[in-house]
Structures are given as C-alpha cells and as structure tokens.
Amino acid sequence: MRLLRSELLRARSRRMVSMVIVGGLIGIVIGLGIASFYSHKPSAAQLASAQQQYDATYQRCLNGKYLGPNQQIDAGATSVADVCSTAVTPPLDGIMLRDIEQILEHISTLVILLGALLGASLGGADWTSNTMGTLLTWEPRRMRVFLVRALVVAIFVVAVTLFLQIVFALVYWLATDVRGVTAMLPPHLVGDTFATMLRVSSMAIAFGLVAYVLAMIGRSTVSSLGVLFGYLILFEGIVAGFRQSIAGSLLVRAATVVISRQPILMEPRDFSGPGVPVPIVLMDVTKAWTVVAVYVLALGAISLVQFRRRDVT
Amino acid sequence: MAMIEIDGLRKEYRRVRGGRTVAVDGLDLSVPEGGVFGFLGPNGAGKTTTIRCLLGLVRPSAGRLSLLGADVGHALPSVIGRVGSIVEAPAMFPRFSGRRNLEILARIHGDGEFAIDAALERVGLRDRAKDPVKTYSLGMKQRLAIAATLLRDPTLLILDEPANGLDPAGIVEVRELVRSLGAEGRTVFVSSHILSEVQQTADHVAIVAKGKLIKAGPVSDVLATTGASGVIVKLADLEAGRRALADANIPATIEAGAIRAELPPDQSERISRTLAQAGLYVTELRPDTVDLETVFLELTKDQGVGD
Predict the structure, then answer these.
(1) What are the contacts of A256-259 at 24+ separation with CB within 8 A?
(2) Which residues of chain B lie closer than 8 angstroms to A137, CB-CB?
(3) pTM of the model
C-alpha cells in the first residue's frame, strides 16, 4: 500500500500526465469548435419535418423493413429496436447528439494512443532518469515494484481517458445544443455512450500496459513506443494484410472488435453451393477480449521475468 | 555482529562481443559496527559492483553477502529499511523538486513530513527544497541524496563516491556530514578513490584492486603496513643536528633540506631535547607520517594498478 501511494504520487507528478490532459482538452476544443463552425441549427420547421420522416421510417423499420440496399444488421444489436435505432437516421445535416457513441468509437484510436503514451512514459521514466536503482534500494522486491507500477499505469490511463471522453461528450452535447440537433435520440443513449467510453478506456489500458511492459524490457520510453508502433504498423498493418486468416489473432483488430462490437467476418474461400455463403467468424467479441488479454499477460510475464533477473547497473 | 559480511564475492559481466569481464574476483570483507569504513580502490577496482551486489541490484556470479546479518539473496527486504544508500551519482527525478523526490521515497517507508523536513534541515537544503532538482549544483544533489538516505534513520549507510565531482567546499561539507553520521553510532560504508579524503574520515579501511582485497583493518594498522614513520626536523645546521641525534642513538638522515629522524612521532620530545642540549634549536618539527595514498601505491605496486 505504501509503495502504491508512492507510485501514485510519482505518476501524478509527471509532466507527461498533465501534458496529455491539457493536449487532449485543447484537441477537444479545437475539433468540436471546427465541427460547430461548419454545422448549423435547423429551423423548427426543418426539425418538425425531419422528425416526421424519421418517425415514419423508424416505424417501418420496427415493422420489419429494416434492411435497405447495402445495409447490414448491427452485430451487437439485441432487438429490432436496437437495429432500427442504428439503421434509421434523421434526414438532417450537421452535428447530432445521437451520433456521440459512433464519434467516440471513431476517436478511440487517439484515446488508445494516449494510453500507450502514458504507459510508456510511466514505465520508462525511471530508466531514463536512472532512478530505478534508487527505487530498488528502497523496495527490493521487484515483482511488487513491477505489479504496483502496472496497477498505477492502469489507474492513470483509465482516469485520464475517461476524463477526456466525458469532457468530449459534454462539450459535444453543448455544441449540438447550440449548433446542431439534440432531438431524435435513440433509447439508452447515456448508458450506451458510457459503455462505449468504458470499452475504449479498457483498450487504452491494454495498450498502456503493453507499452509499459515494453518500456520495462527496453528500459526506455522511446524504445517502448518504437517497438510498439513498429509492430503495429509493420506487422499488423502490412504483413498481416497478406494473410487474412491471422486477422483473428491481431491486437489492433481485437481492440477494434471490442470497441465496435462488430465481429470480423471472412467469406468462405471455396463456396460453390447454391444460395448466399455464410461468412466465417474470424473474431467475435469474446475472442477479441481473449486476444487482448493474452497479449497483455504474455508480454507482462516476459517483462516481469527479465526485470527480476537482469542486473540494474 | 558485522554490519556487512562478504564471502568470496565474484561478479562477471558478459561482454557484448563475447568473453567475460571479471569485476569482482573472490572478495572477502567484514565491516564492523559503528564508525566510518572506507572502501578504497582506483576506478574499475570493483567498488561499485560490490555495492550493487550488496544492495541486490546486481546478481553475484558467486559468493555470499549479508547486510545487518541478513542474507542479501533471500532476506534483503527484511533489513533494507535500516540501510540508506547512494550508488554512484545521486539519481533523482530532475524536474521534480527536492522535496517531491523525498516525498516519493518517504511514502515507501511510511515517513511523514516531519522526517522530510528533518532530513532537509540536516543537509542544509530546506531553503531550496521547492526548487527543481535540475537547478541544483552537484553538491546539492549529493546532499539531497544523503537526505534521502537519512529519511529511514538508517543503522547502516552505504555511500558510493559521495565526494565525486564536488568542489572543495562541497567535499568539506560531505566530509563533515559523513564524519558526524559515523560519530552518531551509525555505520557508514564509504567507497572512494580519493584516498586522502577517506583518511580524514574513516576509522577502518579496506583497499581493493582489480576486484580483490589487498588490505583491510583500522586506518592506523594499514598505515603501519609500510613501516615508514619518523619525524622531520629543520634547523640551521643540518649536519650538526644529524651528528647530535646519532650521538643520542637516534638514527637520522638528511633529505631534501631537512633531517629525517627514524623515531615514532610520539617521541619527538627526545629529538628537541637532544638538539637543545647540543645548542641547536629547531625551526620546524613535524611527524613524517605516510598517507593512505603512499600505502595504497606500495600495496598495489604488484597488482599493475594504473597500468
């Protein structure tokens, strides 16, 4: 507990944490400022007309006519109402509060990158400052140091990313209220939005922990980020593109599935029968969570073993 | 009980291009309780590696180490709270204030603000406590690191080259601090390659070279190793003085414009009386003691130190 308090103080004192928060807030203000600038609030007549069309389309959808041309059923949907709330969109331009969940999914890459940055920084700072030796002369139980620090990374990543997402949602709500549309909201919007935030933050924690354990192996922040992005871009981005079958084992794909709740499907290669081919599920949500957990735990175990064995010079 | 016990310590490092470097080669050492213990040797003698092994930072290739009676390999956590240490350069977070650096460490041990204030006061850094460490001079960083070691009110202090890189004023400050810590009944284990510095503070010393122990014991015993001690006498007529001393059975030679009498310094009174009786009056009378540097060079001349 004492070590945890010490590590929390150390992490709280790091400039990187405040930089990420301030940078995130500035990004939110600029991004939503630009979106608001190009949006406009519809008139009452436009809104009434749109509402009428929306209600009619929504009702048709509930009656079973929910698949238009090129439309797919949301794999995460559990009811017809769920399907319709996604499939039917109001006939209006500009920013709409009902889109908040989707927008959070779209900016999740940035949030996850912030998590990785925090994890790498919190893991690599002691090696860069050469203070790991000092710390270990106060707490020589390296496993304890490693695990407590991982916990601190998780705590800080979830706190920072949730805070930024909540601020984003509130500012977006304000922006839609002033320059967009806050009507025609799907049911459970608040709960679903918060669930999306939690899924995004969970993935930010996972990437933060991966960056942390890489920093402990490479003994620097830079090496951690270099290896992580090198792997994600070169291997998962390029090499994996040549073999679709391994998509079900990749970290980025798994994170995407967790956040979007959309499974990765693959067309069967040698389908020759009549009718429509049934796609193969390469990765569903459960498998995606498992893949992410395996990456974190496997890399964590390797990092812990080498941290316990290697000399600190 | 010995505060530090080292038995057959050996540490090898693997070279990047193959082969091994032996940093410590079968070192045996016992550090008694209380006072200042000087751990001497040139750069590369294995002092820092030995300290890293003692603190569990480096895994020994062979040998047994104990701190405060606890085996370092298995029971270090049980005694580490009574050991304060600085290894090589004081390592602190440069952008954090001195106080924040101490707070982070103090929380591990459960110490409060009072202990931090007391430690800062002790090393004279209370006025600069809120400044970032990167604005500190090397001496101030060294003192901050010592303050960190004092947070735990340690029984044993292990300081690796605490005067390294300091200006003369800084050296004096650290020397006084080390001396006072030793006088409080703590055991202070100080490694250094500045032999004259250690001679002024240590009660016991151990001399290492090339990873091996050359000599250990109380400073007086180690200084007596070469057997060289005497009294330097200056007076107007050196030859007359030498003859007068020889007549009184005091062996003496003339060296570099002075007489060197082969007599323990505590018998200087015999010299002045003999010369006065011969009508010769001394202008200078001082002990010609050997220093650690001389002893060190004498003891290590066969080890190829400095080659």
Answers:
(1) A256/A288, A257/A283, A257/A284, A257/A285, A257/A287, A257/A288, A258/A199, A258/A202, A258/A203, A258/A285, A258/A288, A258/A289, A258/A292, A259/A105, A259/A108, A259/A196, A259/A199, A259/A200, A259/A203
(2) 55-57, 80, 83, 85, 87
(3) 0.84
